[in-house]
Write a structure and sequence with these properties.
Helix content of chain A: 10-25%
Largest interface: A-B, 39 and 48 residues
Number of helices of chain B: 1
Strand order of the largest sheet of chain B: 1-3-4-5-6-7-8-10-11-14-15-16
Number of helices of chain A: 2
Oligomer: heterodimer
Shape of chain B: globular
Number of strands of chain B: 16
Structural class of chain A: mainly beta
Strand order of the largest sheet of chain A: 1-2-3-7-6
Radius of gyration of chain A: 18 Å
Shape of chain A: globular
Structural class of chain B: mainly beta
Largest sheet of chain A: 5 strands, antiparallel
Order of helices and strands of chain B: HEEEEEEEEEEEEEEEE
Chain lengths: 134, 309
């Protein structure tokens, strides 16, 4: 079936068809990127393989400017935008400069968008990344 | 017994047989492959559709199927009213509005939502009828259509999370504009084959509290109708739905597209004298790796009754 889809998409009749048959990049739950504002380096690692149900993740935040104080991890949200499902980490604790977010219930198989809300006083910043829940 | 009475009894028997199963796949989100609910000789039609849907599991973005575990379930029941009006003869105006009850249950989460679905307005125009059998070359019947989905559904006005993973019984939360066509051809005296396709564009919405745009939808369906008796026919269809990636807050999210393949079988009974119509259908999105992706595999039973004048 995948082969058929690719064959049809190669004809280029429908960009949508190509979308439906494309194979998205893997999303295993790790991240090493800059925040949306570009001022915070964010490292994320799920504690173990991402699974359907309760998950935990560790987040390390550092500023590109050493003189700046790293922000706090204010919230960890998850969203399935097509389905309208949302989930939130119930607990976030900081230990040795690493934030541990726990009780994040990714209750459905599929691709979730994880959003981290970073807070530096009144300044909010975000970073988001996908994870695939089996 | 009069023949007309026999047909009416047959239609009622069909109703009784399948009423206990509740019914079908024609949920608020179905599209493409749809058909006229009136014929050229009719003025209007009223159809009530009841359906129940149970999810079997979900396909991940790579098409691997993951069954729901024993402590997970996702079910929905829907009641849908369809109205068709013929004016002029070759043009049918359709309007439909549904209400649904949706339940979702996992080990840690349980939610239930009940409310209206979206309103869908359609216009279908018969471009040409199929030639009569005595013609040497018989071209198929062709019709074209357009639709507007009006987001009246519960999701459009709800701030709560979660409104279903498969079809959109409680609404998409977005306006949708679509167009499509249907082609049908009789290959034998009692067999009609048809092909339908519909392409739809979803307008940006804020159903999730921020800017979102659902990807476009393309439905393609092929099927056959087999006349078993003068008043009874059987149907078989294969439906494919593709939806594009979602854009959220201006960012297109890779891996949020979906592909779903569904098999539908059913039967329909009609009584020409009274205008009574009844049908049932069973649909299944086969839980087989690779057939679908990013979508929910579900089975659904549908049952409809209607009157045509």
């Amino acid at each position: 079936m995948i082969r058929i889809c690719r064959a049809v998409s190669s004809v280029g009749l429908f960009g949508l068809m190509a979308t439906g048959c494309s194979s998205p990049a893997p999303a295993d739950g790790s991240l090493d990127a800059l925040s949306d504002a570009g001022s915070v380096e964010v490292q994320v690692q799920f504690d173990g393989p991402v699974r359907r149900g309760q998950n935990a993740l560790s987040v390390r935040l550092s500023t590109r400017d050493a003189a700046q104080v790293p922000p706090l991890l204010a919230a960890v949200d998850a969203l399935m935008p097509a389905h309208g499902h949302e989930a939130h980490a119930q607990q976030i604790v900081e230990l040795d400069d690493v934030f541990h977010a726990t009780e994040l219930d990714l209750f459905m198989t599929g691709r979730w968008q994880i959003e981290l809300e970073l807070s530096s006083g009144e300044v909010l910043d975000r970073v988001s990344f996908p994870v695939d829940v089996p | 017994m009069k023949p007309g009475l026999g047909r009416l009894i047959g239609a009622l028997v069909s109703l009784v047989l399948y009423a206990g199963q509740a019914s079908a796949c024609p949920c608020s989100d179905d599209a493409g492959g749809g058909a006229f609910i009136t014929s050229e000789s009719d003025k209007y039609a009223l159809v009530l559709v009841a359906s129940t849907r149970r999810a079997l599991g979900n396909f991940d973005v790579r098409g691997r199927f993951h069954a729901l575990s024993a402590n997970e379930s996702e079910t929905a029941e829907e009641l849908l009213l369809r109205i068709g009006l013929r004016q002029p003869t070759q043009l049918e105006w359709q309007a439909e509005l549904g209400a649904a009850s949706y339940r979702f249950h996992t080990a840690l989460l349980s939610e239930r939502q009940t409310g209206l679905g979206d309103a869908i307005l359609r216009a279908r125009y018969e471009v040409r009828n199929e030639e009569m059998p005595h013609h040497s070359v018989r071209l198929p019947a062709v019709s074209v259509g357009a639709l507007v989905r009006v987001p009246l559904g519960a999701i459009a006005s709800s701030a709560s999370s979660g409104f279903g993973s498969g079809d959109a019984q409680l609404g998409l939360g977005a306006w949708e504009l679509g167009a499509g066509f249907d082609v049908s051809h009789s290959i034998l005296r009692k067999v009609d084959l048809w092909l339908g396709s519909e392409l739809a564009y979803r307008l940006p919405d804020d159903a999730l509290g921020r800017s979102r745009q659902l990807g476009p939808r393309w439905d393609l369906a092929v099927g056959g109708r087999f006349g078993l008796l003068a008043w009874l026919s059987a149907n078989l269809a294969l439906e494919s739905r593709l939806t594009g990636d979602v854009t959220l807050a201006g960012r297109k999210l890779d891996g949020t597209s979906a592909r779903l393949l569904t098999v539908v079988v059913g039967a329909a009974a009609r009584d020409e004298r009274t205008g009574f119509r009844s049908s049932f259908s069973i649909s299944l999105a086969p839980p087989i790796d690779g057939l679908s992706a990013g979508a929910t595999s579900a089975t659904a039973l549908g049952f409809s009754v209607g009157i045509v004048r």
